[in-house]
């Protein structure tokens, strides 16, 4: 018996988009692309893992400002502005809480040198049109009574918020599954290229995955994927970070009401309090290649510096020590969008801002995958800025 319904044309095998890497950047790209109607496959042996499992989750565009990174600041601010709406949409789509908190950040100085450094940072922030308030040491301790008596001053930044990266990643994974994203839980062995175009990938079990477009979002591993032409391979290196998690017993609550950070002996230290009683202390920054060993020295330095900032921290139970790898590019900024190899896009190199830049990265990659064009805020971060031709032009420019 013939069906009365017209025959639907069969769609070709494969995906519209294959995303290599299922960390927070790969997942947000997959979710946004699927929302735009694309058939998306994510290849990763353990989706939801990656650097976000180790990150503290500070959304600190203002206090993370560094000299020479004003262009990156624009991208960071664009992402921070999207965060409230992004979180609301993601939590509704996934049915999961992300631990997003608008509690603000307090950056403090412990000695005269640190105070001078903070004053310079304050001037840079003001010159960049950012909002931060200078406080005396007494005003800092009024906000956070557990601060060390020697605190000399600080910056209050109410616009720097936080999120729990583990909850964020779990929510993105659930939202992707609900949006129809297909997961292949295997390593990608190499990129598949035909007729000078990326056409998919080969998994470590020999499976060939075909795709119209490929997004390389494998974090610090992005620079090691076989099959990518040498002049297209992203210049991404791993930077090790060790981080601690402590638990605040009820008798000590509330321990901190906001994120507190400082520079101690030239090293950054921060304490991020979660609503569930967890306190995250981080993080070292080590050029140690692919080593992810938690060291006694790293743990000691973090606890020593945190103790100088908040003496009472030594009374808290230490519940977890972890080390992860941040994907760093030569200019500490991400690589977003099309490469010189047709069909291959990058979403990597986010360094210390992967969680912060998740909303704007997802939007930018979804736009380029559907329209072929990067949004204006993402254009300065094209991977083509590291192409041999672009590098040659920069070297030839007069100093």
What does this 3D model show about the protein?
This protein is 28% helix and 26% strand. It is α/β, with parallel strands linked by helices. The chain has 2 domains: 15-53 and 167-235 and 331-390, FAD/NAD(P)-binding domain (3-Layer(bba) Sandwich); 105-161 and 238-328, D-Amino Acid Oxidase, subunit A, domain 2 (D-Amino Acid Oxidase, Chain A, domain 2), CATH 3.30.9. Strand 10 (197-203) and strand 11 form a beta hairpin. Helix 2 (70-94) packs across helix 7. The chain starts with 14 loop residues before the first strand and ends with a helix.
Give the topology.
Layout: E1 15-20, H1 24-35, E2 40-43, E3 58-59, H2 70-94, E4 105-109, H3 112-127, E5 133-136, H4 137-143, E6 153-157, E7 161-162, H5 165-178, E8 182-184, E9 188-194, E10 197-203, E11 208-216, E12 237-247, E13 259-264, E14 267-273, E15 278-282, H6 296-309, E16 318-328, E17 335-338, E18 344-348, H7 358-371, H8 388-396
Parallel strand pairs: 1-2, 1-11, 2-8, 4-13, 11-18
Antiparallel strand pairs: 3-7, 4-6, 5-6, 9-10, 10-11, 12-15, 12-16, 13-14, 14-15, 17-18
């Amino acid at each position: 018996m013939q069906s009365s319904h017209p025959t639907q044309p069969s769609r070709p095998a494969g995906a519209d988009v294959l995303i290599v890497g299922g960390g927070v950047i790969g997942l947000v790209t997959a979710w946004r692309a699927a929302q735009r109607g694309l058939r998306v496959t994510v290849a990763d042996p353990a989706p939801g893992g990656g650097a976000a499992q180790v990150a503290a989750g500070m959304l600190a565009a203002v206090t993370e400002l560094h000299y020479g990174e004003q262009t990156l600041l624009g991208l960071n601010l664009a992402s921070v502005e999207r965060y409230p709406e992004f979180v609301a949409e993601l939590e509704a789509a996934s049915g999961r809480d992300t631990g997003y908190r608008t509690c603000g950040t307090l950056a403090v100085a412990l000695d005269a040198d640190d105070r001078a450094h903070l004053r310079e940072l304050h001037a840079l922030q003001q010159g960049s049109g950012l909002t931060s308030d200078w406080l005396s040491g007494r005003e800092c301790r009024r906000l956070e009574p557990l601060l060390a008596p020697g605190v000399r001053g600080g910056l209050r930044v109410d616009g720097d918020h936080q999120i729990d990266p583990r909850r964020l990643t779990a929510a993105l994974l659930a939202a992707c599954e609900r949006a129809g994203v297909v997961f292949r839980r295997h390593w990608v062995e190499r990129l598949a290229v035909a007729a000078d175009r990326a056409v998919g990938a080969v998994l470590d079990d020999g499976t060939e995955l075909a795709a119209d477009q490929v997004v390389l979002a494998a974090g610090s591993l992005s620079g090691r994927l076989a099959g990518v032409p040498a002049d297209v391979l992203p210049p991404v290196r791993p930077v090790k970070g060790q981080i601690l998690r402590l638990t605040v017993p009820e008798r000590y609550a509330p321990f901190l009401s906001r994120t507190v950070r400082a520079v101690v002996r030239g090293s950054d230290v921060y304490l991020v309090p979660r609503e569930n009683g967890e306190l995250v202390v981080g993080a070292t920054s080590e050029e140690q290649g692919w080593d992810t060993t938690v060291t006694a020295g790293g743990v000691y330095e973090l606890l020593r510096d945190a103790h100088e900032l908040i003496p009472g921290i030594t009374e808290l139970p230490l519940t977890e020590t972890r080390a992860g790898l941040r994907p760093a590019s030569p200019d500490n900024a991400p690589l977003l969008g099309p490469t010189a190899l047709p069909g291959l896009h990058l979403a990597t190199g986010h360094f210390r801002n992967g969680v912060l830049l998740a909303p704007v990265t997802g939007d930018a990659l979804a736009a380029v995958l559907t329209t072929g064009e990067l949004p204006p805020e993402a254009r300065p971060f094209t991977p083509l800025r590291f192409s041999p031709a672009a590098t040659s032009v920069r070297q030839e420019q007069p100093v």
